[in-house]
């Protein structure tokens, strides 16, 4: 085989965005090595520039028709492009909000950024992985980097405890997931590429259904751990509470997006013979996640634990799109994750800023915050109300699209449960907003009474302010002007070959009319 033929088969240009991220990682480490402690003034911006460059490279891959590379190991289709963009953007925003937090803890910022970029790299490869070995290596790159970030504050016993718990449960889930992949490998007669596995099992002369169901259960257990679905959620509240807050922000968006990208690709490509079975399992996970996540969140006293259970509930909502199994369902998942990125990261940015200024994350300590910090109160209120699905914010249109897709597919029970649990979630989100805004001056908490003077000129505070404003604008505008995001989500699904066999609910896509007095789903182009 000539070099030209080998290069054509490898088609390495499809991983140009990941190549840019690798170069960015090396640049951060080399600059830190040469410059030393003062590198913290430069390295975050090198990292953010590299990640944004990777997103630009992804944009130029949108119309690429030759998407399969590395002998079938990686697929740079439109769906993977969107998910890789979400993961890279979540890392860039997280780095922006973490500068002051990490510097104040006295640990190395460049090392933290290096580990986070490594996790991003694992998530991006996982989003397009089309082969068993690549899936597992990408998943472990993401997972091991996440364990390291969770225990990054090594002087904090809570961070150590969170890392140990995450490591032990994560290692168990990886072993279970690997066993499921090994069963797939054996049942298919030694195939590792997902489409080849499905073909081999469809052509098998013997009945493989029982073994396939076992492989499915183990594979879903590994995915459910990654997306924090009940009952594989036990690590989430403790890890969220004990970990550095920027790490939690990344795990709640970047890691979750990678898990859903894996779920779509693995279920649709490798398990077409037992579609009903995996729909049933994910339905059970979605119901449990929506109910338990929202109900237990009602009793929380810590903002980080509240957002942990909120994250579990949000995973349940996103799974509705996966269960629907239609093009509209997958589009609604992509759209919801796009808007979830900013409203969730914005919420965590507010928690970081409040903890930097007061040293606490207890919900009761937010009492009367409006009178001391109007910007923080406004951003946190908008992000929480959007997570709850209050119109006309981005979260409302995300949930409307998910419920619309499920209703058209006949999943009436899931839609009704989703609506009920959404109403429950609004209660605990509004409780925080009310505490910040409505309290009288004499009911102000001790932390707010002793609130320090607001100074944005301190080192690392300006990027945090930029994150707050960016999240506020994105969460507000993405709701009012959501049609471009609808088009992006729909296009990512219609351009993806593996989803072309998905039954279509409607040949027309939903467009949302944004007139002041109406919020209306109508048929449009």
UniProtKB/TrEMBL annotation:
<dbReference type="InterPro" id="IPR001750">
    <property type="entry name" value="ND/Mrp_TM"/>
</dbReference>
<keyword id="KW-0812">Transmembrane</keyword>
<keyword id="KW-1278">Translocase</keyword>
<feature type="transmembrane region" description="Helical">
    <location>
        <begin position="306"/>
        <end position="323"/>
    </location>
</feature>
<feature type="transmembrane region" description="Helical">
    <location>
        <begin position="208"/>
        <end position="227"/>
    </location>
</feature>
<keyword id="KW-0618">Plastoquinone</keyword>
<feature type="transmembrane region" description="Helical">
    <location>
        <begin position="335"/>
        <end position="354"/>
    </location>
</feature>
<keyword id="KW-0472">Membrane</keyword>
<feature type="transmembrane region" description="Helical">
    <location>
        <begin position="409"/>
        <end position="430"/>
    </location>
</feature>
<feature type="transmembrane region" description="Helical">
    <location>
        <begin position="280"/>
        <end position="299"/>
    </location>
</feature>
<feature type="transmembrane region" description="Helical">
    <location>
        <begin position="109"/>
        <end position="126"/>
    </location>
</feature>
<keyword id="KW-1133">Transmembrane helix</keyword>
<keyword id="KW-0793">Thylakoid</keyword>
<feature type="transmembrane region" description="Helical">
    <location>
        <begin position="82"/>
        <end position="102"/>
    </location>
</feature>
<feature type="transmembrane region" description="Helical">
    <location>
        <begin position="132"/>
        <end position="152"/>
    </location>
</feature>
<comment type="similarity">
    <text>Belongs to the complex I subunit 2 family.</text>
</comment>
<feature type="domain" description="NADH:quinone oxidoreductase/Mrp antiporter transmembrane">
    <location>
        <begin position="129"/>
        <end position="424"/>
    </location>
</feature>
<feature type="transmembrane region" description="Helical">
    <location>
        <begin position="164"/>
        <end position="188"/>
    </location>
</feature>
<dbReference type="InterPro" id="IPR045693">
    <property type="entry name" value="Ndh2_N"/>
</dbReference>
<keyword id="KW-0521">NADP</keyword>
<comment type="function">
    <text>NDH-1 shuttles electrons from an unknown electron donor, via FMN and iron-sulfur (Fe-S) centers, to quinones in the respiratory and/or the photosynthetic chain. The immediate electron acceptor for the enzyme in this species is believed to be plastoquinone. Couples the redox reaction to proton translocation, and thus conserves the redox energy in a proton gradient. Cyanobacterial NDH-1 also plays a role in inorganic carbon-concentration.</text>
</comment>
<dbReference type="Pfam" id="PF19530">
    <property type="entry name" value="Ndh2_N"/>
</dbReference>
<protein>
    <recommendedName>
        <fullName>NAD(P)H-quinone oxidoreductase subunit 2</fullName>
        <ecNumber>7.1.1.-</ecNumber>
    </recommendedName>
</protein>
<feature type="transmembrane region" description="Helical">
    <location>
        <begin position="464"/>
        <end position="486"/>
    </location>
</feature>
<dbReference type="InterPro" id="IPR010096">
    <property type="entry name" value="NADH-Q_OxRdtase_suN/2"/>
</dbReference>
<keyword id="KW-0874">Quinone</keyword>
<feature type="transmembrane region" description="Helical">
    <location>
        <begin position="42"/>
        <end position="62"/>
    </location>
</feature>
<feature type="transmembrane region" description="Helical">
    <location>
        <begin position="247"/>
        <end position="268"/>
    </location>
</feature>
<keyword id="KW-0813">Transport</keyword>
<comment type="subunit">
    <text>NDH-1 can be composed of about 15 different subunits; different subcomplexes with different compositions have been identified which probably have different functions.</text>
</comment>
<dbReference type="Pfam" id="PF00361">
    <property type="entry name" value="Proton_antipo_M"/>
</dbReference>
<feature type="domain" description="NAD(P)H-quinone oxidoreductase subunit 2 N-terminal">
    <location>
        <begin position="12"/>
        <end position="99"/>
    </location>
</feature>
<comment type="function">
    <text>NDH-1 shuttles electrons from NAD(P)H, via FMN and iron-sulfur (Fe-S) centers, to quinones in the respiratory chain. The immediate electron acceptor for the enzyme in this species is believed to be plastoquinone. Couples the redox reaction to proton translocation (for every two electrons transferred, four hydrogen ions are translocated across the cytoplasmic membrane), and thus conserves the redox energy in a proton gradient.</text>
</comment>
<keyword id="KW-0520">NAD</keyword>
<feature type="transmembrane region" description="Helical">
    <location>
        <begin position="375"/>
        <end position="397"/>
    </location>
</feature>
<feature type="transmembrane region" description="Helical">
    <location>
        <begin position="15"/>
        <end position="35"/>
    </location>
</feature>
């Amino acid at each position: 085989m000539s070099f030209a033929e080998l290069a054509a088969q490898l088609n390495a240009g499809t991983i140009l965005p990941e190549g840019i991220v690798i170069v960015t990682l090396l640049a951060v480490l080399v600059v830190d090595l040469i410059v030393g402690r003062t590198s913290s003034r430069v390295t975050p911006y090198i990292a953010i520039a590299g990640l944004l460059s990777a997103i630009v490279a992804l944009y130029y891959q949108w119309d690429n028709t030759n998407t399969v590379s590395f002998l079938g190991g990686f697929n740079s289709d439109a769906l993977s492009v969107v998910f890789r963009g979400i993961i890279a953007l979540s890392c860039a925003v997280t780095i922006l909000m973490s500068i002051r937090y990490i510097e104040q803890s006295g640990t190395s910022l460049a090392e933290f950024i290096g580990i986070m970029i490594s996790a991003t790299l694992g998530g991006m490869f996982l989003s397009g992985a089309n082969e068993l070995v690549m899936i597992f290596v990408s998943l472990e790159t993401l997972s091991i980097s996440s364990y390291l970030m969770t225990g990054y504050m090594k002087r904090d016993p809570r961070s150590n405890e969170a890392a140990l718990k995450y490591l032990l449960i994560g290692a168990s889930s990886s072993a279970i997931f690997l066993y499921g992949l090994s069963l797939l490998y054996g049942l298919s007669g030694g195939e590792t590429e997902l489409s080849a596995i499905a073909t081999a099992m469809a052509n098998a002369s013997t009945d493989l259904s029982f073994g396939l169901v076992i492989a499915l259960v183990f594979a879903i257990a590994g995915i459910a751990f990654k997306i924090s679905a009940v009952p594989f959620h036990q690590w989430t509240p403790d890890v969220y509470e004990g970990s550095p807050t920027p790490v939690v922000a990344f795990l709640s968006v970047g890691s979750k997006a990678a898990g859903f990208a894996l779920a779509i690709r693995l279920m649709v490509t490798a398990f077409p013979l037992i579609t009903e079975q995996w729909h049933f399992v994910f339905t059970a996970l979605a119901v449990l996640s929506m109910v338990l996540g929202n109900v237990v969140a009602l009793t929380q006293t810590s903002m980080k634990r509240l957002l942990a259970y909120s994250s579990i509930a949000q995973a349940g909502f996103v799974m509705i799109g996966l269960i629907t199994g239609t093009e509209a369902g997958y589009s609604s998942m992509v759209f919801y994750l796009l808007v979830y990125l900013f409203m969730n990261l914005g919420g965590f940015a507010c928690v970081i800023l409040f903890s930097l200024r007061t040293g606490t994350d207890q919900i009761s300590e937010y009492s009367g915050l409006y009178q001391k910090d109007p910007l923080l109160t406004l951003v946190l209120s908008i992000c929480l109300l959007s997570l709850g699905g209050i119109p006309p914010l981005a979260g409302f249109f995300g949930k409307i699209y998910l419920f619309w897709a499920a209703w058209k597919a006949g999943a009436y029970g899931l839609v009704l449960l989703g609506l009920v649990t959404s109403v429950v979630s609004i209660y605990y989100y509004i409780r925080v907003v009310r505490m910040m805004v409505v309290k009288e001056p004499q009911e102000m908490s001790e932390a707010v009474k002793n609130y320090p003077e607001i100074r944005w000129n301190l080192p690392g505070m300006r990027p945090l302010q930029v994150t707050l404003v960016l999240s506020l604008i994105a969460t507000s505008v993405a709701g009012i002007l959501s049609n471009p995001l609808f088009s992006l989500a729909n296009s990512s699904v219609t351009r993806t070959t593996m989803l072309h066999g998905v039954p279509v609910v409607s040949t027309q896509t939903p467009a949302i009319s944004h007139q002041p007095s109406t919020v209306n789903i109508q048929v449009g182009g």
